[in-house]
Predict the 3D structure of the following.
Amino acid sequence: MTVAVEPYLRARRGEGRKLLVPYVTGGLGKHWLEVVRAVVDAGADAVEIGIPFSDPVMDGVTIQEASQRAIALDATPRSILMEAASLDVGVPLLVMTYYNLVLHAGLERFAAELAVAGIGGAIIPDLPLDELAPWAEAADEAGVETVLLAAPTTTPERVVAICERSRGFVYGVSLMGVTGERTSLAAQAGEMGARLKAVTDKPALLGVGISTPQQAAEASQFADGVVVGSALVRRLLQGGGPSEAADFIASVRTALDAG
Amino acid sequence: MSVPVRGGPVHLDPPGPEPTGLGRFADFGGRFVPETLVPALEELEAQFRTAWGSDEFRAEYAELLGSYAGRPTPVTECHRLSDRLGIRVLLKREDLTHTGSHKINNVLGQAMLTKRMGKTRLIAETGAGQHGVATATAAALFGLDCLVFMGAVDVERQALNVWRMQLLGAEVVPVTSGSATLKDAINDAMREWVASVNTTHYCIGSVMGPHPFPWMVREFQSVVGAEAREQSRAILGGADPQMVVACVGGGSNAMGTFAGFIDTDAELIGVEAAGLGLESGKHGAAIARGVPGVVHGMRSLFLQDEDGQVLEAHSISAGLDYPGIGPEHAALAASGRARYESATDDEALSGFQLLAETEGIVPALEPAHAIGWVAREAGHSIPKDTTVLITLSGRGDKDAAQVAERLTGERLQ
Ligand SMILES: Cc1ncc(COP(=O)(O)O)c(C=O)c1O
C-alpha cells in the first residue's frame, strides 16, 4: 500500500514529532529490504531508497561505493522496484535517483512503475526546477510526489518557487557540498532551515552531511526534521545489517525526541 | 578579412548563434545540475553573454590569443601526404599554439571570465592532460589557484603532462572512482564545484556540460574555424575546402572548426574513437553507438547499458576516451549537417606514423584519428583530388612514450 508522503509527514509533525528520513541504497546486499524494515521499526518517518547510478555527481565516496557495489550485485532500477513492492512498512517510501535512469526507462513508465511498487515520492538531485516540467507532469499524473531541493546558494525568489513546486516535503541542502559524513553540522544548516520555514508550511527537512544523533538534533531545531544517508550506509558497507542499522537509527530517533 | 598571419592580429568572427531556450541545440543540451550550481551557471551565462558582446572583452581576448597563445596558427598544405593519398590535404595547426593544443583558446577565455566574476580558483578535469596543462597555464598567468582532476589510469599514461601541471603550480588529483578515466574526473570536478562554487570556477574543457558551457566553449574555439576558413581560401584560390575533418572527444576542436564552415558548402566530418572496433564494445563512439540520456549536466548521446548506466569508453587516446559527446554535435548529427565517422586505435597509430613520415609533423593521438580516417578513406569514400582540411588539434609529444611502447613493445627509459 502506497503511503502518500506529504499528508503522512504533516500528520507526524502535527504530533510534535521531529521527522527522520533515513536513506538506504537499494540492492546493497541481500538484506536491504530487512534494513528498510528495521529502520522503520527504529523510528523512521519515511525511507529514501537509492536507485544506484553509475555517475552520481551529488554523492560523496560512501554512497558512490554503495552504488557501485549494488550495481556489481546486479541491482537494476527494475529489480529494486520489484523487491520494494513487497515492503509494506506503513510509512511513505521515496526513491532517490538520477535523471538518466528515469529518462532511460521513459518518464511515464518510470512514474507508473513507482506507483505500482508502492513508492509515493521521488528525489532527483540533478533535475532542478528549470528542467522539471516533463517529469513533474508524468509524476503528478501517476500520483508520485516529487521532492525538490533548495541549496544555500539558492536565491530567495527561487526558494519560494521551489517550495511551491515541491511535493511531499522540501529538502534543504544543509551545506555546500555533496553527500558524505562531516565532523560537525555545517554553519549554513541553520540558515537553510530558517529560509525554508519562513516561506513554506510544507514539511521542511535538512539533509546532506548530517552524520550523528547530536547533529540531527541540532539541525532539527531549524527545520521539521532530517535526512540521514551516508552515516547509515557506511555502517552497511562495513558489514552492518538490519540490527546495526536499527541501533543507529534508534539513537538518532532518541536524540530527536529529546530535542 | 585579410589572411591571418602568425604573430599578426587575431580576428574573431562575430558571435555565433546562441542555443535556444535553456541551452538547447534542437533536442540536446540543457542544464541538469544539482540546485547548488544553478545560480553560478546563471551568473556565468550572464557574464559570458555580456563579455562576448563587448568590444573591449573581445579585443583583450584576441590580444591574449596573439601575444600569449601564439595565434594565428598557420594552415599547412601537406604536399607529400597529398601525393601519397591522391587528395589535397590542408592542416590547421593547433599543435603550434602555446601548450600545444587547441585547449588554450578556451581556457584563456574562461580565465578572463573567472577574473571578472571575482573568483580566485580554477578547477578542471583532464583526460590526455592537455586541458589540465592549459588550465594550469592560464591559472599561472592570471594568478589563480588551480586543482586538476585526472583519472588514475590517465595519470599513468600521461605522466609527462602530470609533471607539467605540477610545475605550473597546479595540484593534480588522481581520480580512482568508477572507471578512473575522463568521465570520472568530470564527476569529481563537479562534486568539488558543488562544495566550492562561491570562490571557484569550473573550467570545463570541451563543448559539454550544463548550459552555458557547450555554447561558450564553442565560441572560444571558433577562432580555429574562422582562421582556417580565410587561410584555406587563400590557398585554394578563394574556394572552401570540400571536406572539413576533425576528431571528436567532447567535441571542442571539431565544433570550433565547424563554426567557421557551417555557412559554407564544406562537408563537415567528425571522427570518433572506434577503439578496438565498433563491434567490440570497446570504443568511444557516442554518436555511432550512443543513445540519448542526461549525464554531466547535459542531454546528449551517451554509451549506456540497457538500464541507463553509463558505460566505460575505450580509446588509445585519453582525450577521446569519453562515453558522451557535446550536445551541439548530437544536434548536427541528427540534422545531418555534419557526419560522424570513426577510426580505430590501429588506424590512429597509422595516422600518427604517416604524418610524421610524410610531413615531419608528430600529431597527438586524438587528431591522429582524423588523419587515420582520411588516409583510410582517400580514394574510396573521399574521391580523388578532393580538398580536405583537417584540424590538427595538438602535437604528439605527450604520446611519444606510449606509442613507442605500443609499437616496439619496450618502455622508453
Ligand atoms: C590534442 C587533443 N585533441 C582533441 C581532444 C579531444 O577534445 P575535443 O573533442 O574537445 O577537442 C583532446 C582532449 O584532451 C586533445 O588533447
Remarks:
- Residues 88 and 218 of chain A are 31 Å apart (CA to CA).
- Chain A touches chain B through 42 residues (CB under 8 Å).
